Amino acid sequence: MSTYIDTHVHLNADQYEEDLQEVIDRAIAANVEKMVVIGFDKKTIDRAMQLIEEFDFIYAVIGWHPVDAIDCTDDYLNWIEQLAKHPKVVGIGETGLDYYWDKSPKDIQQYWFRKQIQLAKKLNLPIIIHNRDATGDVVRILQEEDAAAVGGIMHCFGGSVETAHQCINMNFMISLGGPVTFKNARQPKEVATEIPLENLLIETDAPYLAPHPYRGKRNEPAYVTLVAEEIARLKELSVEEVALKTTENAKRFFKID
């Protein structure tokens, strides 16, 4: 039977405080065999580290989110470096740039983005990239910092096929989430169609960005199957083939199993 890996989920979010075990049980029932929880500030990193101790099928990625870059410090980055030595921490992030929200000035976002790329290279861990309205600067900084040395994931990718190829050439995987199922999501559907399956991962970004038909509701990792189903439809493949290949990709990429 096909199994899935949700490569980007926020089980450490407050939205799951009341029913986390039920959410995890539904994911397991949907054949989601592993989940990668993202910690992106002090509170969510602490919780992510707890979850990887509690559940053998949960792994963590830890870093500092660009929206909150103004709150980052060298002490926090040193702390992340120490925690990242845990064998179940499999990446640095989510980091990157977010020019949609204006909490953190662009220069501060770029400074901490570069520092986290440098940290990922020091630790030989992949980098998980958040990009919102900042594609040109994200690609430029990845190139300037030689991020290809460790590679990474373009999380919940919403860019063009051309940008996807640029990222693949820098040793990055393209991860698709709920938006690929939205009727009006032209670019994610084009990327799902055009980009080879060997370069794709699947994710939910739960509790955010729930796929159709749950759009606007709380997302959860069980719904990663709907992402795989839409990619299979667009590629004219079986869901089993998409599940098998994206699971293989994730295990290889994160060096798990």
TrEMBL record:
Keywords, ordered alphabetically: Hydrolase, Metal-binding
One Pfam short name: TatD_DNase
This protein's name: TatD family hydrolase
Family annotation (InterPro entries): DNase_TatD-rel_CS (IPR018228), Metal_Hydrolase (IPR032466), TatD-like (IPR001130), TatD/YcfH-like (IPR015991)
GO molecular function: hydrolase activity
PANTHER family per the UniProt record, alphabetical: D-AMINOACYL-TRNA DEACYLASE
Signal peptide: none
